Fold Gfo/Idh/MocA family oxidoreductase.
Amino acid sequence: MTETHPGAALRVAMIGHGFMGAAHSQGWRVAPRFFDLPLEPEMAVVVGRDAAKTEASARKWGWAEAATDWREVIARDDIDVVDIVTPGDTHAEIALAALAAGKHVLCEKPLANTVTEAEEMTAAADRAAAAGVRSMVGFTYRRVPATTFARDMVAAGRIGRIRQVRAEYLQDWLMDAEAPLTWRMQKDRAGSGALGDIGAHAIDLTEYITGQRVTTVSGIIETLVTERPLLGEGQGLSGTASTERGAVTVDDLALFTGRLSGGALASFEATRFRTGRKNALRIEISGSTGAIAFDLERLNELEYYDATQPETELGFRRILVTEHDHPYLAPWWPTGHMLGYEHGFSHQVFDFVTAIADGTQPHPSFEDGLHVQRVLDAVERSSASGSTWMPTDA
Amino acid sequence: MTETHPGAALRVAMIGHGFMGAAHSQGWRVAPRFFDLPLEPEMAVVVGRDAAKTEASARKWGWAEAATDWREVIARDDIDVVDIVTPGDTHAEIALAALAAGKHVLCEKPLANTVTEAEEMTAAADRAAAAGVRSMVGFTYRRVPATTFARDMVAAGRIGRIRQVRAEYLQDWLMDAEAPLTWRMQKDRAGSGALGDIGAHAIDLTEYITGQRVTTVSGIIETLVTERPLLGEGQGLSGTASTERGAVTVDDLALFTGRLSGGALASFEATRFRTGRKNALRIEISGSTGAIAFDLERLNELEYYDATQPETELGFRRILVTEHDHPYLAPWWPTGHMLGYEHGFSHQVFDFVTAIADGTQPHPSFEDGLHVQRVLDAVERSSASGSTWMPTDA
Amino acid sequence: MTETHPGAALRVAMIGHGFMGAAHSQGWRVAPRFFDLPLEPEMAVVVGRDAAKTEASARKWGWAEAATDWREVIARDDIDVVDIVTPGDTHAEIALAALAAGKHVLCEKPLANTVTEAEEMTAAADRAAAAGVRSMVGFTYRRVPATTFARDMVAAGRIGRIRQVRAEYLQDWLMDAEAPLTWRMQKDRAGSGALGDIGAHAIDLTEYITGQRVTTVSGIIETLVTERPLLGEGQGLSGTASTERGAVTVDDLALFTGRLSGGALASFEATRFRTGRKNALRIEISGSTGAIAFDLERLNELEYYDATQPETELGFRRILVTEHDHPYLAPWWPTGHMLGYEHGFSHQVFDFVTAIADGTQPHPSFEDGLHVQRVLDAVERSSASGSTWMPTDA
Amino acid sequence: MTETHPGAALRVAMIGHGFMGAAHSQGWRVAPRFFDLPLEPEMAVVVGRDAAKTEASARKWGWAEAATDWREVIARDDIDVVDIVTPGDTHAEIALAALAAGKHVLCEKPLANTVTEAEEMTAAADRAAAAGVRSMVGFTYRRVPATTFARDMVAAGRIGRIRQVRAEYLQDWLMDAEAPLTWRMQKDRAGSGALGDIGAHAIDLTEYITGQRVTTVSGIIETLVTERPLLGEGQGLSGTASTERGAVTVDDLALFTGRLSGGALASFEATRFRTGRKNALRIEISGSTGAIAFDLERLNELEYYDATQPETELGFRRILVTEHDHPYLAPWWPTGHMLGYEHGFSHQVFDFVTAIADGTQPHPSFEDGLHVQRVLDAVERSSASGSTWMPTDA
């Protein structure tokens, strides 16, 4: 059992070591240097299938050990936290084992590839919570200071009653029809395509900032390039393409409308074909007395419209979310000095470690992750049924 | 019959004199001063129901005469063109009469309030065309130089094959739940709400720039504020509110997805509740080798992304569409001197008069307007049927 | 003497018919259609040196007559207003004659090519004013609604005490070293280059919005391309180039700092070589409790920063200056519908005609124009003296 | 002597531990995790005057030891690098001692508080270089990928011949006249105010991107608030104010023009009173065939204008400088994932360590820093002499 007296070590095992592994490593390394953490994370062991590659990752990212068998690592007494950064098809098995072993679990999003898996994980997380074991899912875009501040503004009533929402996550990295087929384009590995990979962020961010849930959806998902060159040597985004081709089994584009629990409609778009948009997770929330808008491509900014100002002075203002009193920012740099993408992960570590020490439920919980999974599933069902409305929690 | 020898007069009667009347008047007055028109428009007569008000409009806007009976005016021999700027419920009757009388007709959008009316009008326009009588519908946002240039760029292949489209028309002028109930909120007068008033522009602009048609749609329309104070004294947007309330019978928000004839999906939004957005008709077209984006709130600009540039130099560029060689701009000001909203109407006059003189079909034709009407109708039918997909030309 | 009873005609003679002639004509034509003018402008006669060209301008722009001798026109009893849109070297002679003849005078900026001329003109204007004759200089950028509103905001104390100012007018139309030598590049015709042509606007706008005067300056002016092809056939910006070359005798770039009468420093830039900037008259005024920023390339917008808002909500807001209650906008279009460049001229007509009818001094007065001329002169003297500080009113 | 075989340790002592200490610590910690460094930095010892505070900094930022006597630390054999992050008045003494002791030196900007000190330091650096000892000054904004890429673009001729430059560094953190008097407002500690603190960055960035030097300057510096409350308890920006007041002995605002060695004029502004601007280091370089513009408040973006594109397609494009092939970015995140302010320091470590291992001169060199110091000095001399032009290298 994790010791939670101030300054006690919190020994972390990270399962997986792709792009997300680098980001999580940076979070574990940096958070303790800027935040006063109640426990001291130790980057104990990184786990991967390939021994040599995993060893290289351990050296590069500063993990004390490398290992190849995650079951063995989970069984160790000297591990307190299991941080899961593998593709979605393995989340359930690892998380269930880790929770059973009494380890706190941080699991990358999406929580799982299916609702059934996510339900099992949530049930296990609930049981573990009763025994003081914490679990959390990694929707880190909640932890960009500007989005957290947006949530605070909405919660404080600064935009009034929510009237409508637009949320979109726009990328274009698949616009080259000859880009190779990676695991992110295979349904059995990735669960879904743009929908689950980036649409999931748009859903979670909407639910987080509004404090409401998507209750029903109508939409369509579509694959724009249905066949791509198989990946040859290497793996990941930069792998070279072979001459053979394979089927893309996930969506490239998802367009859907959801009804929020508060009654408002929210329209969503997730795409890997929006030419020229690189990482535009954007959300705009229109309320009865104001509005807020965020764009991840300008992540240190928040647009705020205060409809209670005099009529001739109305306008979206560009707030640089870099003030000491903005969320997460007190330990960082002076005003006007920007944070990068990676510190969503630093802030995640801060929140997760704090919750472990305090014995409280961290957020987003597995239940939050399950809900997002249910929305994704409902979108797929709606699409398969001619865009008829599907409840998300049926 | 209109004389079309160079310099012959083109005598115009305008039916209606609200906000659109001011804009059309400005178009008729200004176009001949900047463009070399083959015929000379004469602002002959303006027609309204209230004699005093119409007389005042005539004086203010420079029409030679005021009249109260449009049928009489249409019957006059000394009228060549009938310009219809009344609410949508009267378009059909007036246009049919005008075409029957051999007058060229310019009709504000939407063409009509129902598909049936629009079909009759289109049939009449086709018959009239055979006799050399021209008709056109007033989607003036096609004639903002930046949107015309966008069409030219797409037609020239500068963004490649169209992959997806986002089109939205965002306003917030109804966000005050106590704003009074005007004719624009009554289905019998306006036909529909945000959908037909501004969504129609988003549809037409999409079809114009892409050169494709929306073939099927799935969507939802919704009224956010269902009851409003009845209008007391005065008329139009600035009328005062009475203490009685009436039902809003049109939509405030329309969210729909359409399939374009070329295969791509286009997602649409029309709303009068997007807090802080005043007149944001925006369209972004993503192609296989580039993208373009337009926002009416910055109407002299066009964003263009050329995906064929070197990878490290890719980016949306902000083109100031104020060059001599941009569409419509040769007779205007030097580079960098902005045009206003109103010159969509000047350009409309230029194109309409030119088509009359040349004996060619002006665009958008009544058939184009009918098609937009069919899309609007399909959206309403889809919304009423749980967002199932509806063909637009069934 | 002009009759000033309501609705009396105000007969205008415009001297000159280049680019500014088109803009002024549009102002005279359009203003009466949107504003309730106390007098009725009549576009009586346009005057130019070339009879055929002037006749063509008269027809094109709607002037009743064309004439070639401005002295004769000024001598006519049936002319009330002389509107001077010729190059700067002729302003003084025409204005002095017109004032002597008891005509109200609207004179394009810069008021004159030299301080001495401007002083004579101002003295004449003062004498004429005593006899009820009005004069005004045409710094129309004061009459963009956003700049007028900026002045109102400053005057109302909404940015507090002025701490510093940045004003710049950036163009790039001379960046092509082979662009031909027009009158705007000849000192004897144009007086100066970027300094007087566009820098004058930056100075006037600074003085107008701040309500302060530039009292001393230090700066440098420079010609970047010193020799250009002589203009062959045609005239104006679009004339073709010949094979001979001539000396550019005016500046291409002016950089200077001024001390305002309230104590703050203002830094200025006027340039025709700022690559990619087409018509960027920008001003940013930093005050003790706020700031405002304007850019003519987005002339319907004003950026406002209210430093009295809560610290976490500070930011420049983009006000769309298109509301009914914004300056000049009541008679125009609904919210969110943009005005173009040309309506500075419409608003100028409104203000000028109103002042004539009311018997009040219109602004900017010749004295205001003289002051700008003195600033321009001081900049040239400072530049010639190694950038030492020169008083503007010595 | 530092061992430079691959993988050898590079033991670093950091002198000072304020805001810059945090940033440098992060650079030393993070760089080895993303870049393949030829030597392994060890965060050996941090030095400060106050033992307890220094000890706390060591723990917080991960330095192995804390010490209070920099002379002792410099004398140690087990230190290879001295990293100086103290206020400017101590740079010279520490750097000279460190170089004399054969330590590689990384010195924060400005290099020194006076030209004389900077000259001594440069001479010492030159002597040391002969013995294989490296020195570098910390203008980290050269190492934002977008600015480095801007330099590459200019060097590759992508904007042609440089015609003019605008460089500004705008902040507003002193706009509160009651903000307390810290060392940054005292000439004996800070050397100068806005001029040296942030103007130095504008100068260095201009020289870096253009590849040219400022040869003469004319300008003015000014203190806007001349007296402030003395700092009470605490130190640094967040110290509380006492009731006594002291004189501000540095400038708040610097406005100057410089002549570049290539002939073009560059205008500069450094200010702590530009209301609403938080950290706007902006530079725009106008060339004969293009332009580039950068703003540190959007540090992952570069605006590029390619004047060789077709005339109707000209425009500033917003390049997201987040591609694998952009400078420094290969080891970081996928396209569209933003870097923060701090990684200028990571990239600085990468370049500095690489130069040490390779035995080459890192940049910016002390000589580069000396040159900036000479420009600062010339600005002060010009200001004191009525803004007459002063050579920078006299």
